[in-house]
Amino acid sequence: MSTYTIDTATSRANPQPAPMKRLTVPAIRGRKNADGMTGEPIVMLTAYTMRMAQLLDPHCDVLLVGDSLGQVIYGLPSTVPVTLDMMCAHGAAVVRGSWHAVVAVDMPFGSYEESPEQAFRSASRILKETGAAAVKLEGGEAMAETVAFLTARGIPVIGHVGLTPQAVNALGGYRARGRDDAEAAKILADAKAVAEAGCFLLVLEGVMEEIANEATRRVACPTIGIGASAECDGQVLVTEDMLGLFERTPRFVKRYGDLAREIGDAAAAYAAEVRSRAFPTEDQIYRPKN
Fold first, then answer.
1. What is the spatial distance between Cα 247 and Cα 264, in angstroms, rounded to a whole number?
2. Tens of pLDDT along the chain (290 residues)?
3. How many whole angstroms from its chain centre is CA 45?
4. What predicted TM-score, i.e. pTM, was given to this entire model?
5. For residues 117 and 139, is the Cβ–Cβ distance under 8 A?
6. What is the rounded distance in angstroms from the CA atom of residue 48 to the CA atom of residue 97?
7. CATH among 3.30.420.40, 3.40.50.1100, 1.10.3670.10, 3.20.20.60 for 25-264
8. In degrees, to the nearest 5, what angle opens at C-alpha 252 toward C-alphas 248 and 254?
């Protein structure tokens, strides 16, 4: 249980944390029992900042510091240019803003593919500098040895197969995967390989529903769907997509808000009041007390 308090008198960045017991990797893995059944689906959302983590934490089982921050935060064309420094900085911010969810951090492109030893150096740096509980890496059979190497050395790993954004150049785009028999068989083999190597969660992204269902039945660890199937053991979305912060969202995203419009309206109202000198008012001005 969290027993400390934070002085909130001088900084809006540090609101009073609600004492909560943080979930653990074994607790998340245990959501799927030996019979392959998951009673309560796992809720996962992305978070890149302290404040967003604070808002999402009470509602989520896992907060993922995704390398999607490359596009969402930095305006990059893909996740490929994201660096380990970026992931560590944002991962630490999310850990500081959360008290309940398991925090996992994406390993960026180029930080783990070379060898299991390189992956261990990168993953151990992430865990040391952020305080996160786990890392996530993309790839199937080719990454199984790396997953086993990391898990054997005490680093919990989330796998990621199907549409793997770091491989966008090789895949030729972001289309759904598993449309033909060969591709479907490859996804199932990839899922089985990394699950058996020791992943405690497995993200299935952008795969045909039938393939996601089959993978969920075949692997012992819980699956997390994103553009996959309602039968996965949990779901993840990019929070900014879910909140409606972008005009264009992928087909598999349900928009639960329209924050882009609300922010635009608020900024327009502020701008109008500044230009008309209606803001600030007496309530926002400091004057000597009589």
1. 12
2. 333 344 444 455 555 555 568 999 999 999 999 999 998 999 999 999 999 999 999 999 999 999 999 999 999 999 999 999 999 999 999 999 999 999 999 999 999 999 999 999 999 999 999 999 999 999 999 999 999 999 999 999 999 999 887 866 666 565 676 688 899 999 999 999 999 999 999 999 999 999 999 999 999 999 999 999 999 999 999 999 999 999 888 889 999 999 999 999 999 999 999 999 999 999 999 999 87
3. 5
4. 0.91
5. no
6. 10
7. 3.20.20.60
8. 75
Q: 145 an active-site residue?
A: no
CB distance 204 to 195 below 8 Å: no
State the sign of the Cα–Cα–Cα–Cα dihedral 95, 227, 172, 76. Answer: negative
Strand partners, 137: none
Which of 205, 214, 240, 273 does the annotation list as catalytic? Answer: 205
- Residue recorded with tokens 């500081």: 96
Phi and psi angles of residue 78, each rounded to the nearest 5 degrees, phi first:
-160, -175
Q: For the chain, give every domain's residue range.
A: 25-264
Could you give the angle at which helices 209-218 and 181-197 cross, rounded to 10 degrees? 30
d(CA 231, CA 181): 21
